[in-house]
Write a structure and sequence with these properties.
Strand content of chain A: 25-35%
Largest interface: A-B, 55 and 43 residues
Radius of gyration of chain A: 20 Å
Number of helices of chain A: 8
Oligomer: homotrimer
């Protein structure tokens, strides 16, 4: 009887080289089932992904799924190759949604290594990748950059040349992709749930989204599996000394986005993610709340505006909506600081 | 930096006026995904919603989803406007299903205020609404009345004129809507799971449905989210002093209906809900059982009969099937007392 | 007021006779929703069921669901008639998948009693059945034999003649059904996730699948309900003295199969199950790991090979991959010993 080593150990820091392109495994067809499971896991009520009729009334047919469904699926594919040996996911940038994803679309993802920087301790380093998800027609569905701290297999391995990519602080409004046919001129604000349009939001305005959701292990596991994300810490209570399952950061993103309906019901579509930080771990039993800040705004077309929003998830409600303390560090309880562009009727 | 108040505080008692019509937000397209998630949350085995082939064999194509899926979706839409500030949901009446709901249908709901009665304490009042869910063709899918006790925002606000609507004790058999094409003459009792037909049930007969299901927080949260029901107490362990999440009454209705298969397998379709009372709260860890009582029966067509059934859900099994104690109050353990009409082969 | 006994008590040992055919209730239409819920409950990443594009590229269109979805649905139908009063599920044999099951297919199951053997204690006996699931066209989708120990209703009932069927130790490679059109000649190993093909696996080789999943009550209940499996012990914490819900053995099968992706990513299709034993109970909180052993191999067509695999699920990881102790008994921690044939590119 022989033993084999056919299983995937993941890549370590010294396995990456700048310019390397990784084709990630397991293409995935999106279905109406994904929409339903997503709706059972997050309290989403945005009218476009909820109603095929509403979506068609603003020019979107067939019926798109939430951008975050596409994001989580596409992102999950990168985990076995990029972040199986990650210490931490450090950030996102330049994420753009190029077209709506609809049931029947099949997504696959590839990543290019765009930067490497070994840590001074010699035991790990930061890997920068730009990932692109394409559909069955070979068209880009979405793309994003992220950087992640990865263990070295061998701390004695030589450090690579330092390459730190030049990533935009945020996606410029002129680079936002508006879905073909999108037209908010006949938008039904009553059906959508709130009267507030583009011009009703002021830069600097903050919105406490009021509602909270207490997290459970079953739910975050189901969500994370749906994205075929294989990171052990989310599923295996034996993988951490404290016996807790660490909740996938994307679960907090989706929860906060869904909660943001209450005050941002018309911020229907996510056009880009400018930046994102998971600032503290979340576990079952935590109650997640959210607040938003309007960072910027831009007129996109006659009927479409874009709001640049900071979406903050907190453990426990913080009616003061405090992002950072006097020391400049994230305030206690802040779980997520996400900077994104949403499309909203003018 | 300014603050905003764009979030929905819900309506308080003094915000309602008799005759007012509220168009509820977020139209919702029903999909095969809803059927699957429902089947993962409730032990349903009724042949019509389980099998497209069986449904077609009784004249129902395309393949309808369970009436309760339509009910929960349509009901959920009313919560942000009608019962966000509710003290208690007091009752249902005159709920009729006008046509089967099938995947691809998009439901929206509107409600008319049909009654108001301030409580003597001056701090709350009862609001009566008649709600109607229509599909993408503007046809009525279902309608119902309910009344709910709602907080006042300001206890000093003047009491409105008392209007208490005249609601039927039960839907008359002649008012039941039989789905177009429904024909039980070729009904396959073996495939359906039990041999009992209309004539085998006697008024007064009680059926102990035997099986029990222990509730979990993840499951009731997933169900309630699927219906886009936003009531805080179902999702937020910090919203109640005891730290428990109160289970949506509709979760108990669906669980009891699914359990009733065992003894009522041929009561395939719900045609009307005559009355309903959630008599005690349910929480994760409770084990729910059900029993039914035949209240009445009516011949509808050559192949279709209707049974008027009392469906009782209990915490813990009560083989004595006791609804009320000697004091006339609901017996300990009774969670739900639901009065409905089901269609069954003659 | 009368009482009725319309509920299903299940069959007891003395209710079965050799040659008896039972048509099981509740035909069930498979949908894309089932695929999504399955993907939320098991960490499956096999490219064929994940991607309609990938499946079509190997000749499988429309897009098949996992064979285990079909198996669990077909198996679940037998529970109310065969194993509601079971002491234990003793084994499986001769399970063959005759054609892929695709969304829109409706499955029904019938069983023939092929053997009976009363236990010496006179209180129970072993029932052998061969079950066949057919689709809406009357074609066989899958078939299997199983034997189960069932309580007697009356220990004084006469023992039937002993009939023990002759069941094959394993399905012969020549009896495996290869799906019409299956062609692995253009197989995309990068998309599938691993480079290992038929010839890379040696008989006797063992593969530790590394990853573990901690089980929850909500998840196993949801899975088991999805299959309309009615066994009380899976759902009712009051049905067992220890207050635990026993996890459906099929949940462990699906979990182990999904985990086996890591090392067997190209073992895309299950063609047959040769044997299976649930060797210990599993409960919420257990962390399930898996390992496989290559038992045999067979060339099937120019592009398709078959591996006969032992799939072992364990509670806690056993890197030694020990099936049995020196005493010949299953090692502590072994939950499942499943013997199956998988189709893999040559």
């Amino acid at each position: 009887m022989s033993e084999s080593a056919k299983t995937n150990p993941g890549n370590f820091f010294e396995d990456f080289t700048v310019g390397q392109v990784i084709e990630h495994a397991t293409p995935r067809t999106v279905t109406e089932g994904d929409r339903a499971v997503y709706g059972s896991l997050y309290p989403t009520r945005f009218a476009v992904p909820s109603s095929a009729e509403f979506a068609a009334s603003v020019g979107l047919a067939p019926h798109p799924v939430e951008e975050l469904i596409a994001f989580h699926i596409a992102f999950g594919k990168t985990v076995p190759d990029v972040s199986l040996n990650a210490v931490a996911n450090l950030g996102y940038a330049e994420c753009r949604f190029h077209q709506p994803v609809v049931p029947g679309d099949t997504l696959r993802t590839s990543s290019e290594v765009i930067g490497l920087k070994q840590n001074s301790n010699g035991r790990s380093g930061v890997v920068y990748v730009r990932s692109t998800a394409t559909n069955q027609r070979g068209e880009v569905a979405l793309e994003w950059a992220r950087w992640v701290m990865v263990h070295k297999r061998d701390s004695g391995a030589a450090a690579p040349e330092v390459v730190v990519p030049d990533l935009a602080d945020h996606v410029a409004p002129t680079d936002l992709v508006v879905p073909t046919g999108l037209d908010f001129s006949g938008y039904d604000f009553v059906a959508a749930g709130e009267p507030h349009r583009f011009g009703d939001y002021a830069v600097g305005e903050r919105i406490d989204h009021v509602d909270g959701v207490t997290l459970t292990d079953s739910e975050h596991q189901q969500a994370t599996r749906l994205w075929q994300n294989t990171a052990k810490v989310h599923f295996n209570a034996e993988a951490r000394p404290d016996g807790n399952r660490l909740i996938y950061g994307g679960h907090v993103i989706s929860m906060a986005r869904a909660l943001s309906f209450n005050g941002l019901a018309n911020a229907q579509l996510i056009a880009a993610i400018n930046a994102g930080a998971h600032t503290a771990p979340a576990f079952a039993g935590d109650t997640v709340y959210a607040w938003s800040e309007v960072l910027d705004s831009a007129e996109i077309s006659e009927s479409v505006g874009a709001l640049r929003l900071r979406l903050v998830a907190t453990k426990g409600r913080d009616e003061s909506m405090t992002l950072r303390g006097d020391d400049g560090k994230y305030a206690a309880g802040v779980l997520l600081d996400l900077d994104y562009w949403a499309l909203i009727p003018r």
